[in-house]
Amino acid sequence: MPAAVEIHDLVVRYGEKTAVDGLSLSVATGSVTSVLGPNGAGKTTTVESCEGFRRPTSGQVRVLGLDPIADHDALMPRIGVMLQEGGAWSGVRALEMLRYVAALHSNPLDVSMLTDRLELGSCGRTPYRRLSGGQKQRLSFALAIVGRPEIAFLDEPTTGLDPHGRREIWQLIRELRTDGVTVVLTTHAMDEAEQLSDQIHVLSAGQVIASGTPGELTDQGARSLEDVYLSLTHPRKSE
Ligand SMILES: Nc1ncnc2c1ncn2[C@@H]1O[C@H](COP(=O)(O)OP(=O)(O)OP(=O)(O)O)[C@@H](O)[C@H]1O
């Protein structure tokens, strides 16, 4: 089966700043892939390049075999996107927003199921800007998956969520995987990466510095993923 995402030698510069510096990776169709790395390592920029929101300075990105910029209109209905900053209009009520996005798709997930499981029922009539941080996260996640995308790009999907919310999102991600959806997520939570991922890529300074399954990276659990991550990203501090 062809890879869901193929990134080859990607460079993204913002003026003088090189955010992504010759990065290559691929994401197997139907897998859950986590992208880890310190703040500023280039995770969001890489994911945004896959979503067509960043134009590569050089290199090649293919998502479902398509160019995210040139084929943007064809690609967008097939992918789900959860941005770090949310991505909903400030005055729109949570449930209206979710129903609206669901109606844009031919075979959406059941909105009541999502609102129940993500505990959005009680805030369904609340304008987006008045939602709590965790409620915004839950809604953004729901918006990303409600259209049954072929790939879901989730930028820090559980940051700021309470433990119940985190576990529910983990469970929904596992269900997406069972349904054959490819999931690419960024996270700073090592337990999240370890529990959910088929494949992990660790980024530093805009490059991939390590890749593997959780078992491969941790020597089958002999070391914690956090220790491995710390030694990879700040070698001197972990000595
Ligand atoms: N629009 C922009 N203009 C200028 N520089 C930017 C822009 N967006 C990102 N950068 C810079 O590019 C680098 C990579 O940022 P990016 O957001 O991709 O990192 P990240 O790994 O997602 O970080 P975090 O874990 O903090 O979310 C950072 O140094 C950041 O300051």
What characteristics describe this protein?
239 residues; alpha/beta; Rossmann fold; six-stranded mixed β-sheet; three-stranded antiparallel β-sheet; 9 helices; 24% strand; binds adenosine-5'-triphosphate; transport; ABC_transporter-like_CS; ATP-binding
What can you see in these coordinates?
There is one protein chain. The chain has 239 residues and is α/β, with parallel strands linked by helices. The protein has one domain: 3-Layer(aba) Sandwich (Rossmann fold), CATH 3.40.50.300. The protein has nine helices and nine strands. It has a six-stranded mixed beta sheet, sandwiched between helices. The chain has a three-stranded antiparallel beta sheet with strand order 2-1-4. The longest helix is centred in the C-terminal third of the chain and has 16 residues. The termini are far apart. The mean pLDDT is 93. The site of adenosine-5'-triphosphate has 11 residues, from strand 2 and helix 1.
Radius of gyration: 18 Å
* Molecules bound to protein: adenosine-5'-triphosphate
What is the string of SSEs from the N terminus onward?
EEEHEHEHHHEHEHEEHH
Give me the side-by-side strand order of the main sheet: 5-6-7-3-8-9
Q: Helix tally?
A: 9
Helix content: 25-40%
What is the mean predicted local confidence, pLDDT? 93
Proper CATH architecture: 3-Layer(aba) Sandwich
CATH fold node name: Rossmann fold
**Which CATH class is shown?**
Alpha Beta
- Give the CA-based shape: globular
Poorly predicted tracts of residues: none
Distance between the termini: 42 Å
Q: Compute the number of structural domains.
A: 1
Strand elements, count: 9
Broad structural category: alpha/beta
- Largest beta sheet, briefly? 6 strands, mixed
Q: Bin the strand percentage.
A: 15-25%
CATH homologous superfamily grouping: P-loop containing nucleotide triphosphate hydrolases
